[in-house]
């Protein structure tokens, strides 16, 4: 099992992850490995759902906080995605394992979508149609970034860098920030940009999301899309951009991200100079933070 951890962490380093991120993954995975070996599990391919559940119980008995356990689960998910990608294992034992509930400071009173509701919403659009493909890309963007409506409306083609999985966003007052994207979001954006958007745009249109006439999508248009797809998904509540933003934040915090890290991803700029320095992360550090704590559904 150690060999696979070595291979995985070398892969992370090759991908440009910071040394702190690589070390953090290794420490989490070695902790999990130590437990598995005490119960006679010596290969990642033989870890099943029940072994993961027993690991959770073991960590709870050690007095680990749910946020810490969720971080271990997140590390294991990333490892198994890599192992499946490399053909080293066939299945992911964490597929049916949910994150543990946590009390989310400053967000505990906010209603958020559950994972199955997010899945239903994302899968609601008819992606065989140009507008349905646009809607899927738009919903993926909301869930993957936590961006505000005004930010998504301002998003232009030259700010998208799907090869790097980032948006180089130029916000209000000319302030620039990096917004990481999930692999799934990039996949649907690429489909929309190559298949659907060329069928919709009539003239040169710099903005990413357009309406049925090929013109810049409006705020009212986004609300209409959310209502339509919420109904198509059979969700018994109003899905708003604010709800999707809260869901993005709650997912990060539940997976163990710090509130300071979440604020960095949201692009918040504190007025306190010393505090601002804590939130000044490099592009790669933001991507590391995002990949570690965001659930790519």
Features:
single chain, 297 residues, mainly alpha, DNA polymerase, domain 1, hpI Integrase, Chain A, 3-stranded antiparallel beta sheet, 4% strand
Summarize it:
Residues 1-84 form the Core-binding (CB) domain. This protein has 13 helices and 3 strands, in the order αααααααβββαααααα. With 297 residues, it is mostly helical.
Secondary structure: elements and pairs:
Blueprint (H helix, E strand, L loop, with lengths): L1 H13 L4 H20 L10 H13 L4 H20 L29 H8 L7 H16 L3 H6 L5 E2 L4 E5 L5 E5 L2 H18 L18 H14 L8 H14 L4 H8 L6 H6 L4 H11 L4
Antiparallel strand pairs: 1-2, 2-3
Helix pairs in contact: 1-2, 2-4, 6-8, 6-10
Protein name: Site-specific DNA tyrosine recombinase, XerD
Keywords: DNA integration, DNA recombination, DNA-binding
Organism: Limosilactobacillus frumenti DSM 13145
H/I helix tally: 13
What is the makeup of the main sheet? 3 strands, antiparallel
Distance between the termini: 27 Å
- The residue ranges in which pLDDT falls below 50 over 5 or more consecutive positions are 105-110, 271-279
**Gyration radius, rounded:** 20 Å
- The helix/strand series, from N terminus to C terminus, equals HHHHHHHEEEHHHHHH
Number of domains: 2
Helix content: 55-70%
User: Given the C-alpha coordinates, what overall shape results?
Assistant: elongated
**Overall SS class:** mainly alpha
The residue-averaged pLDDT reads 86
CATH topology name of the largest domain: hpI Integrase, Chain A
User: How many E-type strands?
Assistant: 3
CATH class of the largest domain, please?
Answer: Mainly Alpha
Going by CATH, what is the homologous superfamily of the largest domain? Intergrase catalytic core
Strand order of the largest sheet: 1-2-3
DSSP strand content = under 5%
CATH architecture of the largest domain: Orthogonal Bundle
Domain Tyr recombinase: 108-297
InterPro entries: CB, DNA_brk_join_enz, Integrase-like_cat_sf, Integrase_catalytic, Integrase_recombinase_N, Integrase_SAM-like_N, Tyrosine_recombinase_XerCD
GO molecular function: DNA binding
Keywords: DNA integration, DNA recombination, DNA-binding
């Amino acid at each position: 099992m150690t060999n696979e951890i070595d291979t995985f962490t070398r892969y992370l380093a090759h991908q440009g992850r910071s040394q702190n991120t690589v070390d953090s993954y290794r420490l989490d995975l070695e902790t999990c490995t130590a437990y598995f070996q005490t119960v006679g599990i010596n290969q990642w391919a033989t870890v099943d759902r029940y072994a993961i559940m027993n690991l959770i119980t073991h960590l709870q008995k050690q007095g680990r906080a749910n946020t810490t356990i969720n971080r271990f689960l997140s590390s294991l998910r990333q490892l198994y995605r890599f192992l499946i990608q490399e053909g080293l294992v066939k299945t992911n034992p964490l597929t049916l394992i949910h994150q543990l509930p946590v009390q989310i400071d400053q967000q505990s009173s906010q209603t958020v979508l559950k994972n199955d509701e997010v899945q239903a919403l994302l899968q609601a659009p008819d992606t065989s149609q140009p507008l349905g493909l646009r809607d899927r890309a738009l919903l993926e963007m909301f869930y993957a970034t936590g961006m505000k409506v005004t930010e998504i409306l301002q998003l232009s083609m030259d700010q998208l860098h799907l090869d790097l999985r980032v948006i180089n966003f130029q916000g209000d007052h000319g302030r620039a920030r990096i917004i990481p994207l999930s692999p799934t979001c990039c996949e649907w954006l690429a489909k929309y940009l190559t298949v659907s958007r060329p069928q919709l745009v009539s003239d040169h249109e710099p903005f990413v999301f357009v309406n049925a006439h090929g013109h810049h999508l409006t705020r009212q248009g986004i609300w209409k899309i959310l209502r339509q797809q919420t109904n198509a998904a059979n969700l018994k509540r109003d899905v708003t951009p604010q709800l999707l933003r809260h869901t993005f934040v709650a997912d990060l915090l539940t997976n163990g991200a710090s509130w300071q890290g979440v604020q960095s991803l949201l692009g918040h700029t504190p007025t306190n100079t010393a505090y601002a320095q804590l939130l000044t992360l490099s592009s790669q550090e933001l991507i590391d933070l995002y990949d570690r704590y965001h659930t790519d559904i």
